[in-house]
Structures are given as C-alpha cells and as structure tokens.
C-alpha cells in the first residue's frame, strides 16, 4: 500500500490533525487519449484515536464529484521494520460497511470498532485502507482508469493511558555535503514528524530541511539524507534542530556524530 498520490503524502501533519482532508486524484497518461477514474473525497477525521474508554469511532467520507464512487474498506495492522511500513490483515478492528457506493455530492459514515483489549503498556497501531473500485469502462473506451487508494492511521492508547513517544535525535556529516539525520523512538507510542530544519549557530537560514511528514512507531527508527545546500563544509561541532511533531515541538542543540 502506498500513502502517497502523485507525489503527495496522504498522511497529515499536526496542523491538519482535526481538519477534513480533501483528496483529489491526479494521473498522467502519456499515450492515452482520455483519462477516467478521477475522484474527489472529503474525509473527516483524517486519523482515528481509540482508547479503552472510547472503543468506537466514525469516519465520514464525502463524494465531492459528480459521479458515484464505490469504495472497498479494510482494516490492517500497521508495523514498521527498517524504516518501512508493513501492513498485515487483522480482525482486531471492525470496519462497517466493508464496501460502499456513495452517490454524487453525498456522504457515507464508516464505523470503526476495536475488537480486542488495548495493550497494557504500548500503543496499538492500525490503518484503514480505502480502495476505490473503478466502474466498468463504457463500450469502446480507450484510455486509462486510475483508482484512488488512501490509508488512515488508527491509534489505540494503552490501558493505563500512559503510552507516549520518547525520541532521540542524532546527526552525522556525510560525504558530498550531505548530513544524515536519524531519529529513534524509544517510547511506547508513535510520533509524527511533519518537518524539521538544521541551523548553524548565529544563522537564521537553515542549512538543511525536510518537509515530508513521517510516522515513527514505538521502538522504530528513521533516517534522512539531506543536502546542505552549500558547497561549504560545516565547521561547527553543534547544530540547532527545530522540528514540528504531533507530540511536542523540538528546539534543541545536537552534536555532530553523537546522540
């Protein structure tokens, strides 16, 4: 499964956490005379948070197009390994209905229910996959039909409600004016890093930055290789890091080559 469409990451930043998500399908068909399957969805909320006290939720999907849209909906368990997302079919979550057809300019409520107990200490993580089912092409149609697919994160707080991230950052200078930025989540819950930047002391212009939103689940790590944007070598031993996350914003100083 892919969380991006036409290069846009469909996982949302903290700034969009409680807002509706407008999803517009786009595609390029170089050799096709026509393009079919365009769809516009409005989804609220963009992620689901459950707990031992709140084991159900509702997601509203609105079809903003002028054509009916059919969607297949599935819950999957979400884990990570070596910085890669892994999705596994699960019965821990119930989503209803599993298949729905939404009329033009209409909406459908998707019910989500937890079917197991929350973990004692760790956050549980899932995703709800929404796959568009393209209609049968009209007779004589020659072109490309493109189906929209997105996934919404689902987080289940621990039984004691104490699961939280604990993040350790590190930076290393690499060849070819590149900096490796690493983060390890040593906590018991996810963290979503929406963007971050590195600064040399006394300079308000970042030497490197990253704007793609990334989730790092509990116990997992992630790395970025960033160009400094300047052929000059970094002579300082310390760099300032400013990052925006769905936990706390970060403003700290890091030592090159050390956590």
Detailed description of the structure:
With 259 residues, the chain is mainly beta. It folds into 2 domains: 4-156, Immunoglobulins (Immunoglobulin-like); 167-255, Immunoglobulins (Immunoglobulin-like, Sandwich), CATH 2.60.40. The chain is built from no helices and 23 strands. The radius of gyration is 21 Å and the shape is globular.
Layout of helices and strands:
Layout: E1 4-5, E2 8-9, E3 21-24, E4 35-36, E5 40-44, E6 48-50, E7 56-63, E8 69-81, E9 84-89, E10 93-96, E11 99-102, E12 106-114, E13 124-133, E14 144-145, E15 149-156, E16 167-174, E17 178-185, E18 191-199, E19 208-210, E20 214-216, E21 221-227, E22 238-245, E23 250-255
Parallel strand pairs: 4-14, 6-15
Antiparallel strand pairs: 1-2, 3-5, 5-7, 7-12, 8-9, 8-11, 8-13, 10-12, 13-15, 16-17, 17-21, 18-19, 18-20, 18-22, 22-23
List its traits.
Immunoglobulin-like, 6-stranded mixed beta sheet, 23 strands, 52% strand, globular, 2 domains, mainly beta, 259 residues, 5-stranded antiparallel beta sheet
Could you state the order of secondary-structure elements as H and E? EEEEEEEEEEEEEEEEEEEEEEE
Residue stretches low in confidence (pLDDT < 50, at least 5 long) are: 1-38
Largest sheet: 6 strands, mixed
Sum up the overall morphology in one term. Answer: globular
CATH topology call of the largest domain: Immunoglobulin-like
């Amino acid at each position: 499964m892919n969380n991006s469409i036409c290069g846009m990451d469909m996982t949302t930043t903290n700034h969009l956490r409680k807002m509706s998500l407008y999803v517009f399908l786009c595609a390029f068909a170089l050799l096709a005379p026509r393009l079919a399957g365009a769809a516009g969805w409005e989804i609220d909320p963009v992620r689901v948070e459950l707990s031992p006290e709140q084991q159900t939720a509702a997601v509203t999907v609105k079809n903003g197009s002028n054509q009916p849209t059919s969607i297949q909906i599935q819950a999957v368990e979400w884990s990570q390994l070596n910085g890669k997302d892994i999705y596994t079919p699960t019965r821990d979550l119930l989503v209803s209905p599993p298949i729905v057809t939404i009329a033009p300019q209409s909406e459908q409520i998707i019910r989500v229910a937890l079917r197991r107990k929350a973990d004692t200490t760790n956050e549980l993580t899932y995703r709800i996959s929404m796959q568009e089912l393209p209609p049968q092409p009209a007779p004589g149609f020659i072109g490309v039909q493109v189906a929209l697919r997105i996934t919404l994160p689902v987080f289940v707080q621990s039984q004691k409600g104490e699961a939280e991230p604990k993040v350790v950052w590190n930076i290393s200078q690499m060849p070819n004016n590149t900096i490796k930025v690493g983060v390890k989540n040593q906590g018991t819950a996810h963290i979503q890093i929406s963007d971050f930047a590195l600064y040399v002391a006394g300079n308000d212009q970042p030497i490197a930055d990253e704007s793609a939103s990334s989730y790092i689940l509990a116990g997992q790590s992630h790395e970025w290789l960033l160009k400094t944007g300047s052929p000059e070598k970094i002579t300082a031993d310390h760099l300032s890091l400013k990052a925006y996350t769905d936990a706390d914003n970060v403003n700290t100083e890091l030592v090159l080559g050390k956590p």
